[in-house]
Amino acid sequence: SAISSGLRRAWERGEFELFYQPQVRLRDGEITGAEALIRWNHPEQGLLSPAAFIAVLEADSLAIPVGEWVLRTACGQAATWRAATGRNLRIGVNVFASQFNARGFVATVDRALSDSGLPPEALELEITEKVMLHSDAALTAPLQYLRTRGVGIAFDDFGTGFASFSMLKHYPASRLKIDRSFVGSGESPHDLAIIEAVTRLAAGFNLGVIAEGVETAEQAGRMRRQACEEGQGFLFGQPMPAAAFAALLEMPG
Ligand code: G
Ligand code: G
Ligand code: MN
Ligand code: NA
């Protein structure tokens, strides 16, 4: 397809770029890190969201090389920001299904860490249920190894899938990311009940919690009262180019 050959060219020409969206401690608004989000800088169409091309990347076996580039770029960027600010910033990196299921995934993560000098604790891999469902129990061991090394494992879009509990039981996590569909409309008693259940679940498993899609101060306050430590969303910042995130950290370049 057109998008398919376009993506291969984009990869060869270096048209992918990482944007960064701040993650914030709800108690005091302090930036704790960022989630890296890929964009395609299309020569004619401008910035394209991954929603439009992730499936094609997966189908064309580009997800593994592009995913490795995302990981290495994000780790390098985070190491630079940590060195420049002296702050204990974390970077969240989304993992493609085929990347996660490929042999050598753990080695790729290890190499990204050692080449960048980023401490394992500063990296959080974001894994969705969709990524997990296509994997088998054999993947528990690599994830366990990464956790043991200190790498964070966040369950992304938590609560939206059919197997959230099963994931918790079978894979090691360090944090739950409450999906924005529960956060954004949290005035409804049903959404509130889900948020309460997820934060209680997190406490029971000794995991951190972060709310996604926080758009208003009311939502941030509500999440804080529900014992959710951190938030991410348009209230704190849109996904932005690296230079803009650096400016937000009040550092040069
Ligand atoms: O940033 P945006 O809303 O356009 O992201 C759309 C979707 O693409 C989200 O589900 C997000 O998790 C996913 N995504 C964004 N960047 C990456 C990436 O670098 N790797 C993977 N695997 N998924 C990403
Ligand atoms: O699936 P994942 O959670 O990784 O997707 C992150 C996506 O959510 C990003 O592409 C980003 O554009 C989008 N996003 C981030 N914050 C907000 C928000 O406050 N509101 C909405 N509607 N979308 C958001
Ligand atoms: Mn994510
Ligand atoms: Na999400």
Stated plainly, the CATH topology is called TIM Barrel
CATH class: Alpha Beta
Number of domains: 1
CATH homologous superfamily, by name?
A: EAL domain
Protein name: EAL domain-containing protein
Organism: Paroceanicella profunda
Domain EAL: 1-253
Explain this structure.
- This protein has twelve helices and ten strands.
- It has helices at residues 2-13, 54-59, 63-85, 97-101, 105-116, 129-133, 140-149, 164-170, 180-183, 189-204, 217-225, 242-248; strands at 16-25, 31-42, 46-48, 90-94, 123-127, 152-158, 175-178, 208-211, 230-232, 240-241.
- The chain has an eight-stranded mixed barrel, surrounded by four helices.
- Helix 3 (63-85) packs parallel to helix 5 (105-116).
- It is globular, with a radius of gyration of 18 Å.
- The mean pLDDT is 92.
- It binds guanosine-5'-monophosphate (G) (2 copies), manganese (II) ion and sodium ion.
- The site of one guanosine-5'-monophosphate (G) has 11 residues, from strand 2.
Please outline the helices and strands.
Blueprint: H1 2-13, E1 16-25, E2 31-42, E3 46-48, H2 54-59, H3 63-85, E4 90-94, H4 97-101, H5 105-116, E5 123-127, H6 129-133, H7 140-149, E6 152-158, H8 164-170, E7 175-178, H9 180-183, H10 189-204, E8 208-211, H11 217-225, E9 230-232, E10 240-241, H12 242-248
Parallel strand pairs: 2-4, 4-5, 5-6, 6-7, 7-8, 8-9
Antiparallel strand pairs: 1-2, 1-9, 1-10, 2-3
Helix pairs in contact: 3-5
The structure holds guanosine-5'-monophosphate (2 copies), manganese (II) ion and sodium ion (NA).
